[in-house]
Amino acid sequence: MRKVYLDNAATTRMHEEVFAAMKPYLLEHYGNPSSIHSFGRQARKAVEDAREQVAAALGAEPREIVFTSGATEANNLAIRGIARAQKNKGNHLITSAVEHHAVLDTCKALAKEGFTVTVVPVDEYGMVDPAAVEAAITDQTILVSIMLANNEVGTINPIAEIGEICRKHNLIFHSDAVQGIGNIPVNVDNLKVDLLSLSAHKFYGPKGIGALYVRKGTKLDVFNFGGVQERKLRPGTENVPAIVGLGKAIELATSDLEAEAAKLRVLRDKLIKGLLAIEATKLNGHPEKRLPGNVNVSIQYIEGESLLLSLDLKGVAASSGSACTSGSLDPSHVLMAMGLDHQTAHGSLRLTLGRDNTEEDVDYVLEVLPEIVERLRAMSPIYTGNEIKRS
Amino acid sequence: MYTEKVMDHFTNPRNVGEIENADGIGEVGNMKCGDIMRIYLKVNEDDIIEDIKFRTFGCGAAIATSSAITEMVKGKTIAEAWEISNIQVAEELGGLPPSKMHCSNLAADALKNALRDLEEKRAAQKTE
How far is CA A352 from the centre of its chain? Predict the structure, then answer.
């Protein structure tokens, strides 16, 4: 059976060149970067070379890059680190309704510590309005955290505009850029961010490694102790092979970004067009300001998990924002924040393309999906076949 | 995460559809949680469930439990059908993931609603 992986927003297959770069650091160059002997020095050099690769990709300086275990840790470090470091200046944080839980739950935890949090709403496409961010600012505001691009619906936020507003009000600005790297240009000066989170496995690097960009002069409170690594912000022996992999992955992902994004956009638009040709479907997310590999549609009258199971039986790996797949009793907070009704949110299907996908993959999905939809609709008590003719 | 039996019922659901002039119809669930099950019954003069059909909007577990209960009930008496519980349906399928035991394991409730509807219709006929 044909296998089609269309869940690249969840994770990606490692690039062969990334694996090749990592391998010697798993088997041969196993020194601890803190050791002064030749083994240690070799590992130290590898870590610092990777730091330069990450910095170069973001338009930053190497010393502004802090390696973490991934974006969740980077988001925690950024938000908790700033909130606690700045608590004498104010206690108010601003974020958006469509952030990843690594941001939302960190803000919730801070709310329990006495911080107040404003969660700015989004429009029907899942986009944050910079004016809404500005309107939320009070004399107590210390930090704004808004994601660069949404992981579920692919909508790209006007980060540079929000960054400009934050500078005007002298606020620290963090952006979770996990979905952006390798898909759209990410330059910390152009985006006017002070902190930016990223994760290697989203752009063909290894899992368990990420980074936080920390603009020079931005002070973070520390909550892990035990070593001087990563300027004491992230103590503990560095994960050298993974750091090497992150460096190589970000170099590859940003060097042929334009060509790769153009290829993905063609596949994405063909897939969207084909899916919307199925009756009673709608596109979720912005039609243009959208990640090149993101497709998210709602298929009315059917539920997401049964759709995913059916696609999986045909070899297609996808994801959904239905309650059954969100790990809670509610459908995706992103789709609900966009104003979708429950049925439309439960019937959402996310297909995310990556560098391995081909036009044949898209054709295959468009071949198998209509049958699946028809079968599930025939079972659905809320579908009689007349709804579509009426609407 | 699902047993083979669940996947079998999900891929080849038994007794999908509606019964015209059903003797009893029962529904359970709501769109908020994402599971809606509807069961249709046809009962003969000996109180035996001759035919049963379902329509379900929901996850794999919701569809599989709906399908499984139709097999469990067909040919049974009304009294026997009343005894079937959600837990028995889950057991029939070799178990369900813990997260599915509450929200998606409602087929016996839909059946009970259909049996209640049947009894109400019969009571109404008697008073006519």
Answer: 12
